[in-house]
Write a structure and sequence with these properties.
about 575 residues, alpha+beta, 7-stranded mixed sheet, 5-stranded mixed sheet
Length: about 575
């Protein structure tokens, strides 16, 4: 999976001036010619000064991994935690990946590896066997796993953790799961109602449950809501609600050195997760030295820490993509002018993504398809190399005019539905379209209203939204599968294309998730202008100047203790 390198961040102040102007003219950053235009810079405006960000790609270059240097302590600015409970498939408790472990986990590139699962066994997957044609899967674990209380982790603890999480907590995508059973001390049988074949099911199940020793759980007065006890490279020291979580290196970590993955390393003796939600306090913390790292610093403060920023000598910035795909979908029902394929192509051809992102202050990265390089299946297709409206580098006025002339559009005002959070984006899109005589008014809604409004084919013509999944293909499935509509015979945007839907379902299987199928599905999407990917958001971690490698785990989870440092 490619990681975007954020080379330039523009001042956020440009957003207000752009959205106030409503329309603009100028040249595209993609190399405009005489018949190419961009509507992002208002007449008389001065461009914002650019702040150059050091190449953050070096901070995730595995060539820089060196676990020989150990820091005494690190304090990390983190979002507040209301509980330390390790349950739930979407668990984001601070320190959970350092304290607890799963059967399997994934690298930031989506590569799965066994943690508690003994990969020297099993024929179906390393560490796992499967009875063909059934819903029975068997996982083997190491016979020497010990938790921080000194309790051995056995198959019964694995079964306890899965059954407890399934019966008592929020689990996503586990509908077919029936029960986990210990066959012997180091063999666990998982029963599903049917054989599993959907894309990513293995990761979504076996990489989504922290394993807790049942005795340690029962010994906890809070049932691990206010304390922690796992088998990971760090162990619990203290927790103060609303203040901090303190962990220390587990000197008696169970796994053999030669079998440890980078995510299982402990290069810092003491970790303090300081709960600091206010952005100003995070900035001040780094400036004064009370914070060494910050998880997900707000974009507007990044310029303080890049070249020319007032705290550039205090820390480095690591940029990475968020998982969300921000998109523009048309209403393809006969109730909307966007039912006209030529009008849809005119709209998508008129949108200048690079200019839009510049006008928004540079906080986003453009998409070349309805696909984000956050996901491990991104590099299966050369999205930027394809020839369509989503991969264009500039707006060609002749192309827009050609599609408009071929359409039945007569200048009527269309409705662009958008959640209020993204009104700035929608305003700029409307201004870009207006430059070509395509008239759009905004309908700002909240999330609940958006879902209800979208079901009414007469209430909107375009919608700007965001989508995510575990793979790009699953993001497609959430937005375009017939199965996500009440009638089951169209998409949520009123597209009726059975061949396209069938191909999408095929892409969402282990065997059908191929380059050929993904590219064919996207070609059909662009041939008919069914959707357009617009941009992806970026996140920013702040790390010390002596940090040479930033370790991120599954779902790009920031792992401070597994980062690498150069000697002072």
């Amino acid at each position: 999976m490619k990681k975007k390198v954020i080379s330039v961040i523009l001042a956020v102040s440009m957003v207000a001036s752009m959205t106030a102007c409503g329309s603009a003219s100028g040249s595209s950053g993609g190399g405009a010619t005489n018949d190419t235009t961009s509507q992002t810079e208002a007449p008389g405006e001065e461009k914002a000064d650019a702040a150059v960000v050091e190449n953050s790609a070096s901070l995730t270059d595995k060539a820089n991994i060196d676990n020989t240097v150990e820091r005494d302590s690190i304090t990390i600015g983190w979002q507040d935690a209301t509980t330390l409970a390790p349950w739930g498939t979407n668990n984001d408790t601070p320190g959970n990946y350092e304290v607890y472990e799963m059967l399997y986990e994934c690298t930031s590139n989506g590569e799965r590896y066994g943690v508690l699962a003994d990969e020297s066994k099993g024929d179906f997957e390393p560490g796992c066997d499967h009875e063909d044609g059934t819903g029975i899967y068997t996982v083997y674990i190491y016979d020497y796993i010990v938790d921080h209380a000194g309790n051995p982790i056995t198959a019964s603890d694995v079964a306890f953790s899965y059954n407890y999480q399934f019966n008592n907590e929020t689990t996503s995508g586990w509908d077919d799961f029936v029960e986990a059973t210990a066959v012997d001390d180091y063999t666990v049988q998982f029963e599903f109602s049917k054989e599993q074949s959907n894309l990513g099911w293995f990761d979504n199940f076996f990489c989504r449950c922290f394993i807790v020793d049942e005795d340690s759980y029962n010994a906890s007065a809070s049932k691990l809501a206010n304390d922690m006890c796992g088998s990971g490279p760090y162990k619990f020291v203290s927790y103060t609600s609303g203040s901090n979580l303190v962990l220390e290196k587990n000197e008696n970590y169970w796994q053999k050195d030669e079998l440890r993955h980078q995510e299982q390393q402990a290069n810092v003796k003491n970790l303090t997760f300081q709960f600091v939600s206010e952005n100003v306090q995070r900035v001040n913390g780094v400036a004064t030295g009370s914070l060494d790292m910050v998880q997900d610093m707000a974009f507007e403060s990044i310029t303080d820490f890049v070249e020319g920023g007032q705290y550039a000598d205090k820390a480095n910035v690591q940029a990475y993509s968020q998982k969300f795909i921000y998109y523009l979908d048309p209403n393809c029902s006969e109730d909307s002018p966007m039912h006209d394929e030529n009008l849809r192509k005119a709209v998508f051809s008129a949108i200048d993504q690079d200019g839009l992102i510049t006008a928004l202050g540079g906080a986003y990265s453009r998409l070349y398809a309805y696909a984000n390089d956050y996901y491990s299946d991104y590099d299966m297709v050369d999205w930027a190399g394809l020839d369509n409206y989503n991969s264009k580098t500039s707006v060609n006025a002749d192309t827009v005019k050609q599609y408009l002339d071929a359409s039945e559009y007569n200048g009527e005002t269309m409705t662009l539905m958008v959640m209020s959070t993204f009104a700035d984006t929608a305003t700029i899109i409307a201004a870009q379209l207006a430059a070509y005589g395509i008239n759009v008014e905004l309908l700002q809604v909240d999330n609940a209203t958006a879902n209800a409004t979208q079901a009414d084919s007469t209430a909107w013509d375009m919608t700007f939204g965001m989508m995510a999944g575990d793979y790009n293909v699953q993001a497609w499935l959430h937005d375009f599968s017939y199965n996500n509509t009440p009638t089951g015979d169209r998409t949520s945007t009123f597209i009726v294309d059975d061949e396209w839907n069938d191909l999408l379902n095929l892409c969402n299987t282990e065997d059908g998730h191929t380059t050929e199928n993904m590219q064919a599905w996207w070609k059909m999407a662009t041939d008919h202008a069914y959707t357009m990917g617009i941009y992806a958001g970026n996140n920013y971690n702040i790390v010390p100047e002596n940090c040479i490698y930033v370790c991120q785990g599954d779902k790009l989870r920031f792992l401070p203790g597994a980062c690498c440092f150069k000697a002072e």
